[in-house]
Specification:
Order of helices and strands: EHHEEH
Helix content: 25-40%
Distance between the termini: 41 Å
Oligomer: single chain
Shape: globular
Strand order of the largest sheet: 1-3-2
Radius of gyration: 13 Å
Largest sheet: 3 strands, antiparallel
Strand content: 5-15%
Low-confidence stretches: none
């Protein structure tokens, strides 16, 4: 089996909250409301629908965002 670390999906909480109980910091250190506003304005990547009521973001899009530097301006 070939596991590609560049392919995957992340849920919103994984991106902006992380997992404090396990000591995992957020990938994008902003508030949830700022993240949602940035997505709506097109500053941050658009999600993909993974179910009737579920959305996620491509790992590759989030990596690119982090590597290119985060922005809060549109």
């Amino acid at each position: 089996m070939n596991l590609n670390p560049d392919f995957g999906l992340l849920r919103e909480r994984q991106i902006v909250v992380g997992d404090p109980e396990k000591g995992i910091p957020p990938l994008v250190p902003i508030s949830l409301s700022s993240w949602r506003a940035g997505v709506k304005r097109g500053i941050y990547p658009q999600p993909v629908r993974i179910g009737a009521k579920a959305i996620a973001w491509r790992l590759s899009d989030i990596r690119r965002l982090v590597e290119n530097g985060l922005t809060t301006e549109g």
